[in-house]
Design a protein that fits this description.
The chain has 186 residues and is α/β, with parallel strands linked by helices. It has one domain (9-178): Rossmann fold, CATH 3.40.50. It contains six helices and seven strands; from the N terminus they run βαβαβαβααβαββ. It has helices at residues 24-33, 50-63, 76-83, 95-104, 109-119, 143-162; strands spanning 13-18, 38-43, 68-71, 88-93, 127-132, 165-170, 173-178. A seven-stranded mixed sheet has the order 3-2-4-5-1-6-7, with helices on both faces. A hairpin with a 2-residue loop joins β6 and β7. The radius of gyration is 16 Å and the shape is globular.
């Protein structure tokens, strides 16, 4: 492989995008487990009902005892600053649930998203963010759904702009979006 296609080193921040059940969490988990660092999960989900509690339990079982888990539903920028270290790799799973937590609590979405994006370069160790790509579907039929879709799209774009690498996962297969090997010029 020529140098023009080589990945810049070291990559310290990753955004892993995909649809529901695309394999994005598994991809980020495998990335962390193969890093040689202590994997730390910042879990943003709240067990609001029995079905969600079952999902959370399944995710815990999938990770096993190798992982340290920190649960945080809203202030992940603060938790990232506290937990990041050279000997750790953090996986934030997921930004979509985090954003919905912010919206449902009527918190200032823009300031939380900006604080997160601005803090990425300052972290003392690597981080992988997992987020749903919700813009591929139909336009939601209600104002809240459209507001969420728009906010998620803006958040994904903002994080993609500050992360070293962006990967789209579809059907369990990763597609590298950034850094890209080819830049089109017209």
């Amino acid at each position: 492989m020529s140098d023009e296609f080589a990945m810049p080193q070291p990559l310290r921040s990753f955004l892993v995008l995909g649809g529901a059940r695309s394999g994005k969490s598994r991809y980020a988990q495998t990335l962390a487990e193969n890093s040689g660092k202590t994997p730390v999960l910042i879990a943003t989900a709240a067990a609001g009902d029995a079905e969600m509690a079952t999902r959370i339990a399944r995710h815990r079982a999938d990770r096993g005892t190798l992982w340290q888990v920190v649960e945080e539903e809203s202030d992940i920028a603060r938790v990232l600053r506290r937990e990041a270290a050279e000997d750790k790799i953090i996986v934030v799973d997921c930004l979509t649930l985090w954003l919905s937590n912010l919206m449902l609590r009527s918190l200032d979405i823009e300031s939380h998203c900006e604080a997160l994006a601005l803090g990425v370069a300052e972290l003392a160790g690597p981080v992988a963010f997992v987020s749903n790509e919700v813009g591929f579907g139909i336009v939601p039929d209600n104002a809240l759904g459209r507001a969420f879709r728009d906010a998620q799209g803006r958040l994904n774009q903002r994080l993609a702009s500050v992360c070293d690498a962006v990967v789209l996962v579809a059907a369990g297969l990763p597609l590298l979006l950034k850094p890209n090997a080819v830049t089109l010029r017209l």
